[in-house]
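S1.2 Input.
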Amino acid sequence: MASGRRRQAPRSLGILLLAIVGMTCGGELSFTLEPSDIIAVQEQPLMLHCQVEGIPPITTQWRRNGALIVEDQNYVMFANGSLLIGHFQKTKSDGSSDEGDYECIAQNFFGLVLSRKARVQAATMADFHVQPCSVRAELGGVGRFQCQIHGLPEPVISWERDGQPVDTSDDRFTLLPTGVLQITGVCPEDSGMYCCVAHNSAGVKHSAGAQLTVSGSQSSVYKEPMILVGPENLTLTVHQTAILECVATGYPRPIVSWSRLDGRPIGVEGIQVLGTGNLMISDVRVQHSGVYVCAANKPGTRVRRTAQGRLVVQAPAEFVQPPQSIARPVGTTAIFTCLAQGEPVPQITWLKNGQILEPDGHVKLRNNNSTLTINGVTQDDEAIYQCIAENSAGSTQASARLTVLWADGLPGVPTGVRAEVLSPTSIQVSWNEPTQNTQDIIGYVLHIRKTADPVEMEYQEAVSKMTLQQVIGDLEPSTSYSFYVKAYTSRGASKASETAVESTLGEVPAPPALFTKVINSTVVQATWEPSAKMGQQEGFSLYYRKVPVPIFTGPLTFPRNVTQYNITQLDPSFVYEIKILAFNQHGEGNATLRFVSLKEAVEKSVLNTPCNCVKDEQNKSSTTGIIIGIHIGVTCIIFCVLFLMFSYRGRLMMCKTVQATRQAGRNPAAGVVLESSSSSQGALALNGPHRFSSDGNGGTHTAKSCTDSNEMERLFSGPSHFSHPPDTTHTIESSLVSCPLNETQMSTLPLDDFSLMEECDLQFRQHPAEGQQDED
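S1.3 Output.
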């Protein structure tokens, strides 16, 4: 055993030195030149290049379609890694072919890497699948020919007329790379036989001929704009050239314009218009993808015709963040990250020493394979890992090496790992000391995870070297957990111990919250709320008792969806203790207690008998208030009416007394002008602020008194009053004259006199006429 360890020491030291050299050189094994796609010519030599750098010795090999290539007279491998195919043949006599996907393989002490796949195809030229057709065009119109042919590489198209090359320097002739020939402003000299010529490294081919006939004369009759040929849908790779064709006719000649359907500007860089309306985008990029709209506009109007085509630009995969070489001690975790972009989004594949890496227990791929995680690395995980990003536009690869650090003197594996459940939330894990190299142990690390969780959900707890056990708390009840232990020294960690699995106990429910409410002197309502802190509850048990009687009534059992109960037929002279607890399959939880006294409820019911006395008293008070309010209102109304009646009555008598006195005196110089009212009621009007003359007692009355009397007259006068006989006027006059002017005789005038006001009014109206007779 000792001699075995001694033989292992130089080897381990050598590995460590090589790892240090590789990490310092930074080029343990990588490609500086990879083979690229190529189109080969039949019976011609072909060279595929491959150059590698790294720590020697390095060996290179080639594979075609996954099979190793053996050197012979047709295949020669150079020291720098390149492969020469002496005579390329698409189809050999034995049925094999030199076409296929070629890969370069490089290998050294650290591992093996694969280059990107290079597709090798033979140059070919197929027959024309679209032949040009004869065209009849009007003078000044548009002529168009088209041909299509497949070939590798893409054939170059040219045109001939009557066996002579078409002069494309003439602005009227537009030759598109797609094989289309456009002739604008057709004239008789353009007539002839046109032929399409295709050529590439595989040869030259001529299409069938097509006749162009020019007829008629140039017309000046208005023609609606029309698009003869619109843009086609294209799918290209970045850096290629896009040709969007648009041929429009009409009279006057329509104006062709281009726009994007999404409203974004087309831009000017790399944009060119060919002929009268073809759009060419050189060096296309992903941002050029979109729907392009060709519009033919009639000059000076809004009349237009449109056609559209979609351009899709693909981008081969390229790395945003390639993986980086790392070194990790045994038992730790290694993580590689590989981020790539492209259009469409590239797919990522991982290789380990040239073989597809399949995830297993400790090897995980996450984030769409962009993250490679190796948990608990061992010596077997040391290799070169490659990230291959590939989409329909191309592929790329990057490699990184994982170095596993291993040193002599690492501790042995801890033994006897066992787990013992303590409670629903805690488990104790114990283990024995390793059997070798224990003197340099500085501690242990306990690895913990739920058995059902993935490895990356694992967490660790550090443990002192002085103890060989650890209690893990804050676990979930009724849950299975896995544990293993590693011993650590200053040089690294031991291998992982065997795994121990244990499940936590089930947990009884936490005490529910309890609330009580006294309904009356014999009923208490108990309401409870379950707690979510501990185990799930299956139901509730309710107990209650008189204090200090030791025996509880109950249990009253309820399902978990019931949270309220009314306890009835209680004795109001006692204090009651109520308790509630939750239970499940693991047992009953702790109870919640409440004490309830019914004495206060009894006292309240005695002092405040629940009768309608207050309500009746309130009803009585309300009725009494309403009646009193009505009486007060009626009384106020009566007083107001009486006041108005007597007030107007006094004013009327005063006014009529003054009028009677003036009539008796017959004094025209009194300065009062009386005018007959135009009103049908015969009311009087006083013009100006004139005063009445004083009587013998010196009493004076203003015109306001008569104005008030007019208001009274309007209130109590009527058309029927004018029919009274004249003698009643003299009666009222004699009564008025007998009254002193300085007194108000409110009680001396009977109520029947109110019907005589109009007669008095008639008498007053006669005074101006008498005065006029006197003047005459």
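S1.4 Remarks. Residues 30-122 form a domain with the Immunoglobulin-like fold (CATH 2.60.40.10).
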